[in-house]
Design goal:
Layout lengths: L1 H31 L18 E7 L8 E6 L4 E7 L5 E8 L4 E7 L8 E6 L4 E7 L5 E8 L19
Antiparallel strand pairs: 1-2, 2-3, 3-4, 5-6, 6-7, 7-8
């Protein structure tokens, strides 16, 4: 039994030593990081009266991040095209169901272009906007769902390689 106790004591001592070394390394690493740079002033781009959700993606094929903003106040989705420098310009907007509260971007139809799925809590529906790859969208089906859809997820549920 004394052998077992010494072995446990040795393991405990080794673990404490490793923990101290790990914490010391974290302290050194954290102190080596320079102070964070400050941010530039905010660049505001109007996107409705009550924006509720945002999806991101390259909707117009220019390799810059764009935004799709779901606005509950106007029941619309507005596309904002990124300029690559942190700013955005207003693009087209699309009427969807009442009180859109969630939005996701995904290629739903396998054409290589991002589409939008919008959960409309006020009309108990999900709207589909099919992307054309140039920043525009056409209306896809609107599907009635249970009351107050609040969140969305897109996945390949049956393993066929399609969402």
């Amino acid at each position: 039994m004394p052998e077992l106790t010494r072995a446990r004591l040795g393991i405990a001592r080794a673990v404490r030593t490793l923990l101290v070394v790990a914490l010391s390394a974290a302290t050194v690493a954290a102190s080596a990081i320079p102070a964070l740079a400050s941010f530039n002033p905010a660049l505001n781009t109007p996107a409705g009266t009550t924006p509720a959700a945002v999806a991101t993606g390259d909707f117009n094929g220019d390799s810059r991040l764009d935004l799709a903003v779901a606005d509950q106040g106007s029941n619309r989705v507005t596309i904002l095209f990124g300029n690559g420098s942190g700013g955005f310009s207003a693009g087209p907007s699309y009427t969807v169901g009442k009180a859109p509260g969630a939005i996701v971007a995904a290629d739903l139809n396998g054409d290589g272009k991002l589409d939008l799925v919008v959960a409309n809590g006020g009309s108990h529906s999900v709207s589909i906007l099919l992307g054309n790859g140039s920043g525009g969208f056409t209306y896809g089906p609107s599907v009635s769902v249970g009351s107050d859809p609040a969140a969305l997820a897109v996945a390949d549920l049956n393993g066929d390689g399609k969402p």
